[in-house]
Amino acid sequence: MQSGKYFKYAFGEIILVVIGILIALQINNWNESRKQREKEIVILLALKKGLESDLKTEFVEGIIFFNESKVALENLSGFYNNTKTIPNDSLRKYIRRSLGGEWDFIFNTATFENLKASGIDVISNDSLRSKISSLYSDKYPELKGRSNRVLRFYENQVCPILFDNINLFDSIFSKNDLDNLKNNRQLTNRTKALSATRAGLFSLANNIKPKVESLINDIDTELERN
After folding, report:
1. Is there a contact between 212 and 138 (Cβ–Cβ < 8 Å)?
2. Average pLDDT of each block of 10 consecutive residues along the chain (226 residues)?
3. Phi, psi of 207 (to 5 degrees)
């Protein structure tokens, strides 16, 4: 009888120990999940901040730059083709606006690079993780690569001819400058080529911009789930 009681007592003790271990494991797992979620939230907030900055300073302002330079180039084309008479001071403005520089897309990618290094699986939502990876690994590099090609064309093909044939520092263009603007085939051809490559770049930017906006909204949705 006593051995039976002892067995029941020992069995009960074992059950209590097992239950205690299971509870401790569950609490530990819950704590780990909470820590992972907190880490994920910090990363998502940093990604959102970078994306919002990219949207404002790169896409919105870059597209404004393109539209202004496009109008200026259209006016220059009218001048080249003798279909538009442009005052000297306006001509200088169009030259500066259309050929005075190129837009260089520079994105906030530090958070994503850190995320890749530490493990992108910390983003628990599969769809969101895929969209983040697609934007930073595919879309941004594609746009940056196109931007670099346009910038190299401008620096290597347009600038040398422009500065060798036109005095951009005088307040007005001389007759020789005007003749070069209109009759220098290298300059007119490269200006047209720049216009085409620039249009391709900003067409791509216009396609990627909604993806950035959509990703910001998706991150907001995921953050609200907390």
Report:
1. no
2. 56 65 64 76 96 97 92 83 78 82 94 93 94 97 96 91 79 77 83 90 96 97 86
3. -75, -35
